Amino acid sequence: MAKGFGVKKFDKWILFPIAVPVGILFCFSLTHNFIPVFWWEKVSFYIAIVLGFLISITVFRYQFKVWLPRNKIKKYSFKWCLNIFLVFFAAPLMGTLASFHALSVGIGKVENALFGEPETYKIYNSTVNEVSNSRAWCHLYLEPIEFNDRYSSYKFCIEDMELSSLVNSVNVKIKERVSSLGRKAIDWELINFKTREDEINGYVLFRFDIETDGTPTNIKVIYEHPKGIFTKEALRAIKKWKFKVKVVDGKPVKQYGMKYKLDFVLDE
């Protein structure tokens, strides 16, 4: 290493007492089961700006005092311009965001685990949210309406549950531990499903065969109204049914091309 290259005491002071704990707390905060109180979220934001600035200084000093001279990067080259972007845009932004999440959620979860009150139950009305991004952590999740405008909120993944497409909101009963810095969800369950108010009634018409044991097979949808609303639920229901078996000469026989209309009438 050339003379003068290396991490100075100032950089080590930022790197180890600040950047490392922030990184650990940030990893600890990567969940959706904690909501910080508003005042702590606000304090965390201002502290995060300071920490992001200090981390950015370290990145700046390393890039321009160590990495660029060591690798003899020419001024205005692609790598030089990339470092300018990293130092003056990416580092401050990512450092501030990571610090904010580490403080508001990470420290909040630690304080909650140490000083939180005994678990209590609370019911939240929650919306059903769908995400089409293939890289999303969950494609179908619940979020309490009460915390929709907060940066950190409860989010409960339900993509493995057989939830009706008619449901657009659910009451979630959450077991929480509450402390001075926030509340943490320990456990939860779904109650009181609510359906879309503008799609109350409808029906699905099927054609299918009935096996000798009464189970339906080769199920086809002939017609549905409204289109695409009740089909999933109707198919799920009819596959579980048992129909009356036709008996000829004392033996059950298979029936072909049977039709059945399944009506849906939901109370407003």
From TrEMBL:
GO terms for biological process: transmembrane transport. The chain crosses the membrane at residues 12-31, 43-60, 80-103. Gene3D superfamilies: 3.30.1150.10. It is a single-pass membrane protein. SUPFAM superfamilies: TolA/TonB C-terminal domain. Keywords: Membrane, Transmembrane, Transmembrane helix. Its main location: membrane. This is TonB family protein. Coiled coil: none annotated. GO terms for cellular component: membrane. Pfam families: TonB_C. It comes from Kangiella koreensis (strain DSM 16069 / JCM 12317 / KCTC 12182 / SW-125). Residues 176-268 form the TonB C-terminal domain. It is found in: Membrane. NCBIfam families: tonB_Cterm (TIGR01352).
